[in-house]
Amino acid sequence: MNFSGLYGNAPIKTALNAHLFHAYLIEGPKGSGKHTLADILTNALVCDGDDPPCGDCRQCYKFQQKCHPDIIDIPSDIAVDDLRQLLAEIVLSPNDARHKVYRIDGAERLHPAAQNLLLKTLEEPPPYAVFLLLCTAKEGVLQTVRSRCQTLTLEPIPEDTIREHFIKTFGVYDEKAKAATLLSAGFLGKALEIYRADGGGEVEKCKQLEQALKDDDTVAVFRIFSFKQREELVAFYNAFSLHIKYRLRTCTSEQRPYFAELVRLWDGAGDAMQTNVNVKFWNTNLARLCRKAKR
User: Fold this and answer.
1) Distance CA 134, CA 129 (A)
2) 3-state class of 69 per DSSP?
């Protein structure tokens, strides 16, 4: 299978080249490449070429034009009755290709009743049907459904690979690109998103917060948490989350307990932030939370 466009993740490529499974659970955070992998696999499944996806055959053209009749995208908010009707048509042979590909982006958001309905089809699908379930975290998908799928978890790629892509795409690897790479936690899509949006600003603020915590400088910590808009606060929350997870992966063994605790505390605030939107409250709360992780 031709994996052009998907960097790293050698175990996934090996598994997909070994044999075809009837259902895959593609797991990875935003920017990890799960949509790239799903597109490559979908295209390969309908391709007529020798090294799929070839990009030149009639089936590939239909895929590229997003009009292939044997590729069925199922919305994650689909009603149970609508899903039942759609799955009933699986007995019909493919229109044009060797396979019918059913894709669900955001499978963890699929209603439990819909997941249970899907389970019945996953247990005994026709030989030409392949399911691709995309999710951020597999734990959001019912265990019974997960057990019928082969899980493909996208992993971070080396920084050198991200650097090479930046040079190939933009012709440079400047400070802004380096900052985006640092914040990406090893995921190329995330690095590109950060680079095109903010770049170095957020990473510099993350470094300032880490230094203020190291110095136990309360004034500096609270100065950083002086956001006026919720969007700014959420953007920094997400950036610092990636920053400390990167530090956890690369720190010394002596530093590991500190960063592990900081990640635990920081992640624990994420759900609560969705229900309480008071910016002033979260400025104070996050500042105090950071200082709970003692070195």
Assistant:
1) 16
2) coil
